[in-house]
Structure formats: C-alpha cells, structure tokens
Amino acid sequence: MKAAILVIGDEILSGNVQDTNSNFAARLLFENNIGVAHILTVADTEKAINEGVAYLFEKADLIITSGGLGPTKDDVTKTALCSYFHSELVFNQSIYDDLVARYTRNNRPLNLLNRDQAMVPAVAEVITNDVGTAPIFWIEKQEKVLVTFPGVPSEMRYMFEKVLLPRFIEKFSGGHISRTILQVIGIPESDLALKLTEVENNIESANIDSEHYKLAYLPSMGTIRLQIIGSGTNKPNIEANIDRFKEQIIAAAGQYIFAEGDDDISTYIGKILRAKNATLSTAESCTGGYLAHLITSVSGSSDYYQGSIISYANEVKIKELGVSESTLKAFGAVSEQTCREMVSGCLKKFNTTYAVVTTGIAGPKSDNSEKPAGLVWIGVGNKENMVVRSFQFRRNRIENIHLFAVSAMGMLRRFVVGES
Amino acid sequence: MKAAILVIGDEILSGNVQDTNSNFAARLLFENNIGVAHILTVADTEKAINEGVAYLFEKADLIITSGGLGPTKDDVTKTALCSYFHSELVFNQSIYDDLVARYTRNNRPLNLLNRDQAMVPAVAEVITNDVGTAPIFWIEKQEKVLVTFPGVPSEMRYMFEKVLLPRFIEKFSGGHISRTILQVIGIPESDLALKLTEVENNIESANIDSEHYKLAYLPSMGTIRLQIIGSGTNKPNIEANIDRFKEQIIAAAGQYIFAEGDDDISTYIGKILRAKNATLSTAESCTGGYLAHLITSVSGSSDYYQGSIISYANEVKIKELGVSESTLKAFGAVSEQTCREMVSGCLKKFNTTYAVVTTGIAGPKSDNSEKPAGLVWIGVGNKENMVVRSFQFRRNRIENIHLFAVSAMGMLRRFVVGES
C-alpha cells in the first residue's frame, strides 16, 4: 500500500511560499507505517489538478491533497475534483450552518463568498474543519481514497493529525511500528554520534528479515531528537528491543538527555520547576524577548514564571537591573561582569527562586566593540549560587537568537537538576 | 516553455528532511521568467527515477533534478539516467583528477567510492561541482534538457545560482515578468477579497493571448501578501498595467496596506520609527516576550527599541507598571482599564515616544474568569493619545500569541502613521 501527496498552489511553484504541509503529512504517515512514494506539486488550474490526481491514482491507494480550498478566486480544487470524479457541486446546509455559527461567534458578517464555501462535491463525504472554514472532502473511488486538506499549515496540521490520521491508520496501516524519542541538549551531533557508536552497532545487528530497527538523529537548532524506530509483526519483541536500546543510549549519554518523548525543553523546564514549587524570572538583552517567549509558550507557565526585564538599552540595564555604569564602561554590556550583575538584579527585582539572563550580540553587526557577532554570555542563579558561561555561535541573527535562548534553557536545566 | 523539478530522496518521502531545494530553484526560475509547472518527489530507486523523468519530460522542456548523487547512492541516479537516455557509464579523467586534487588539498585519503564518482553517463556534458564532489550532468534530448544537482542544499544553491542559472536564462527565458507585492494587515482574507472583486475582474479582463495577469492572496498568520504578476513580451505595457492594478487595490483597501514589497511588519515599523527619530517600549502579559521578539528580530532595532516589562504575574503589573490593585480587582488583568494603565506605566518607565502593550488570554485555558481564551486587549499610546482595542481569536496557544503580537504591530502602525 502506498500513499501520495498532491500539493496545489501557484505560490509554491513560483517559490513564493515554502511548502511544509507535505513534509508534515509524510512524516506522520511514515511513522504509522503508511509509506509516501510520490509528492507532486501542481498549479491552481483545473487541468493541472485533474492530471495530477490521475497520475497519482496510478501509483497510490491514498492521495492527500493540500491547498486550493480557500474562499478566493484562485482556488479551483473543488471544480477540478467534480470533473475528475464526474460529480457536481451541491449546497451543504450543515457546512453552511457551521459557517454562520462560526462567523456569528466572531461577530463577523458573512459575505457571498462564504456561500460558495458551503458548495461541496456530491461524491464527497464532508468532514467539518474544526479550525477553519474550508471543509475536508473524503472521496472514495473503488478501493482508493482521496482526501483534501486546506493549505493553511495550522489548519492542515490540526485536521491531519487530530482528525484524519486515525482513519488513515485504521484503513491503510499494516503491521506494527514502535518509536521512542530521547531529547538531547548541550552536545554537538558528531560528539553524540561518537558516544553512541556501540549502541548503533547493536541496533544494526538487531535487524532481521521480519524486523527492522533504526536510530535517527533529528537535530533542530540547539537540541537533538534521537528517534529509535522498530517495525515488524512481533509487537512485544519490538517493544522489548526498543527499550533495551533506549537504556543503552541513556547509559552512554544520559547527562545530555533532558526528556523522553516529544516534550520540548520549555515543557520540561516547566515540569521541573513545578515539581520544586519554584519560580523563575528572566532578564534579556540580545534575545529580546525570545527566551521569555519559549518559557511562556507552555500553557500554565504563569504558575512558575513571573516576568522579565528586556533591557535592550543600557539605561534599562542600569535603571531596572542595577547593573553599575562603571561595569558597563569597563567591560561592556556583553561581558561576564555585566551578566553577573544582571542575574543579581533580576533575582532581586522579581524575588524568584531562579533567574536566567542573556547578554550578547545577535548580529549580523557587532556592538561597536571588538567582540564578534554570535557571542553571548548567559547566567543562571538562585540566592546561593550563580553559573555564568559564554557561547559563540556563527549563524544569522534569528538563528543566533534561537540558539542563545535554547542554550539558556539548557543551562537552567543543569542548574536546577544539578542542585537537587 | 515550462520547467519541472524532480526531487530524489527517501529521506524526503519519509518526512525526515524538509526539501528546500525545489523552493530555491522554483523562485529563481520564476523570477527569470522560466515557470515551474511541476515539482515531483520520488524514491531513491532506478524505477522511481526513470518513471519520474519520463512523466516530467511529457510536461516540461527543462527538468532540474536534486539529490541522489552522493557517494553512496551514486549508482542509482546515474544508472537510472543511463537507462532512460540509453547511455552507459564511462570513466571521466578530468573529474577524477579534480577529485584527487580536492582530497589532497584537504588531506583526506581517496577510497574506492571516489573512483565511482568519476564514472559519468556518456551522454552527459559534465560540469565540475565547485563546492562538492558530485559533478553536475547536463543532458539534452532533442530540444529538452535535464540537469542534475546534488541534494546538499549549500552545494545545490551555489551551483544553481552562480553557475547554471545564467545558462538556463540564455537557453529558456523568453519575454518578461513583473511582480508587485502589497502587504495587508488587519482584515480577514474573505473580506479583503470582497473589497477587491472589481479589481480582480479588471485583472482578469486584461489577460490577452500574449499577456497574462494574476492576483494571488498569500496569507500568513495575521498578514496577507497580495501579489500582482504580469508576464508577456511587452515590458512597458505589463509594468503600466501592474501599476494601474496596484493603484486600484490601494484605492479599494489602502487603509489595510502596510508595505509595498517584501518587508515584514517588523522591518516596516523599524523604518517608520527611524524616520521619525522615535523610540519604542513594550509591556507584555499574554504575548510573553513574543512582541519584543518580533520587534528585535530586525537588525539595528536597538536604535529605536528600548526594552520591555514582561508582566506575567499581576504583582509585576503593579510593581513595575503601576497598575492599581483596585483596577485589577474590579476589572481583571484582561480588561480595557488594566490595558490603559499598562500603556501609561510603560511610557513612564521607559520614557519612550511610543508604547505598545498586550494583556490577554493565550489559552487553551481561561484565566479563571468568565473571559474566553483568545481574548486580548492591546493598547498603544504616546504622551498625548492612547488607543485601546480588544480582539478575539480562536486558535491554539502559539497561534493566538502570534496573532496578538501581529495585531499589536498593526495597531502601532496605524497609530504612528495616523498621527503624522
């Protein structure tokens, strides 16, 4: 059984927009033992969509489409599907009622285009879009299935993962697949690979005809997700083997592992702070709010997170954090000394259990000193102790900011876990 | 004349790696009037590559391939091409000499696989890869051309843009293409479409055999990029028409347009603040640093941005921003009154020309009041005036935070532009 993805959109063919929906769908399908063999992007025209569907139905049993369902004139997917499946557009009262309810809730007036959105191919099973206005169509043709998704990534992702994926698995997935994720911070990928040489050999030698194991390194800006996948028919055996490999990885590189599963570093930090009944504040210069954003991206973070001073200007460092003018003059804003005074000032201002601070140069330009862009000083402390460290990254501005903030989270983790 | 892109790689079909090469190539080709009509991703097998090439040659005159040329998978793509073009692999001394020189320079030993890398399809013109070891093949078939690129993004990008693109333009680009972008904030896509109905009709009716015009809506979380494209042979005529459509759009929806071209809202805000020699501070509750992050994502933002108080806890709102306890008690943190006091407190604390503040409920849970998740109060002010407004979004936490922050930028824009 094979799946295929049809991406519809001139904006993707012109390079104006990077398609990420197909990557999202392919990964989830793959992890659930439904292999994608073709991803095809075509134009927003009836002819191109028709030809694309025809070609992919030759190759695959399941076609996922993305895009071309919005209310504007450049979206012609519905008409194309009607022509391909020899169907016609009919008015769907329940979709229309749902639209009306959604607009009423948001105090927005309906317009004529919205009525078009309730016109659906007669041949389709219509599935309400819980997070947007374009419904999803499930169309069967003999044993094959085509399912349409909106192009807006947030809508596509939500409806794909939460609503449709279970149906795909039930209908198409054979055999068993198990997966474990360990999340790593604070070590480069090549050093990690070196530590895991023996485990990798063990994983490879566990491969037999009816069972397959694989360790994947999935780095993403400062953290690495280690994924062990096993697939085959003997579920207990696969799960036992994956557990064994997991323990071997923990034995080899345990001090860098901050979480099992999909928790990101922010969620993990939230859990350890909550467990200790501790509070946290931040003071940010170069990260400009991004560190606070990572922390507050977790629902319920107000239980432990108090707030931040974003001290972009030096006067703010002096006035709000009590950094002394002489320190700034002697060592500059990006220095161990300033960083230490920021930690003390932050703890004092917010009276929290812990404080984390950043001061650095995100780039691309330097700060008119001899210090290079990509340099950051990060400090973490409580009332008794303080750890201050510098890092040097060499990415662009946005990536440096991200790496600074993730490194700060990594230092906070070690500090909080290390003291207990 | 149409182009197509063939992406080769199991790692893309499994969702492990996001393909970005096709986006890069498509954009550069499009900008040079070589339209890409198909992007197809297939597996690392001879059969899949062969079928992919055959399908795309039916549709296009130029095929760009990406991937499948590394030292391990070498044989598959090259063998597939030999079989498709009825050719065979031959040893290429100059490629081999180049490899030897490259390895010697880097003090790396050659291995057997390297000799395989010097085996090339007899039918191909071989182009040395200036930044890697896999050469590029230019293969012609009647009037059509297939060109292979390595999958490593840095190699692909360099060789595509610097070496091959000029050849593509010389051989394939005819006519002219013009594009204008208008960026919109503060209006839903369907309402915007309604305002532009007449302009859209004008654009459609300008299409003649030798000229084509199109208006595309490219929404991205709170802003919409409106793109007018025209192509054909009569450059002055195309540019005049695009200018005319642009003026019509501005007449119909001018108050929502914040920029022409690719500037994002943060860059745009930076430009208007700099032009006025003005300064900015923020106070954030629900956006938790994300608003400051948007502002400081722009290089040089320290010229106008002073800093922020992230007042996640109510005590911080009281202590740092001077919000009164009685206001918080009577109206709650998420209220017009608190929002107003935050604006005043922020202006006072940072002594800036403008202040923007947010207080809301990012969700998914409410704040233990009867107020719904997704509700936000945004305030913007200077020493004389203040505007405060509420918005209600219904997305997930991260998207709500993004929409809150972008809406705050939109309100800041109107406030700053409106007063001048």
Describe the structure.
2 copies of one chain form a homodimer. Chain A is an alpha/beta fold and 420 residues long. The two termini of chain A are 51 Å apart. Chain A has 3 domains: 2-172, Molybdenum Cofactor Biosythetic Enzyme, Chain A (3-Layer(aba) Sandwich), CATH 3.40.980; 176-258, Ribosomal protein S10 (Alpha-Beta Plaits), CATH 3.30.70; 265-419, Maf protein. Helix content of chain A is 43%, strand content 26%. At the A-B interface, helix 1, helix 2, strand 2, helix 6 and helix 12 of A face helix 2, strand 2, helix 8, strand 10 and strand 11 of B. Strand 2 (35-42) of chain A pairs antiparallel with strand 2 of chain B, so a sheet runs across the interface.
Integer tally of domains of chain A: 3
Q: Extract low-pLDDT stretches of chain A.
A: none
Q: What is the overall pLDDT average of chain A?
A: 90
Q: Share of helix among residues of chain A? A: 40-55%
Largest interface, C-beta within 8 A: A-B, 89 and 88 residues
Say what the CATH topology of the largest domain in chain A is.
Molybdenum Cofactor Biosythetic Enzyme, Chain A
CATH superfamily of the largest domain in chain A: MoaB/Mog-like domain
Structural class designation of chain A: alpha/beta
Number of helices of chain A: 16
Strand residues, percent of chain A: 25-35%
Q: Strand arrangement, largest sheet of chain A?
A: 2-1-3-8-7-6
**What is the tally of beta strands of chain A?**
17
User: What is the rounded distance between the termini of chain A?
Assistant: 51 Å
Oligomer: homodimer
What is the name of the CATH architecture of the largest domain in chain A? 3-Layer(aba) Sandwich
CATH structural class of the largest domain in chain A: Alpha Beta
- The Rg value of chain A, from CA coordinates, equals 26 Å
Query: Shape of chain A from CA axes?
Result: globular
Can you summarize the main beta sheet of chain A? Answer: 6 strands, mixed
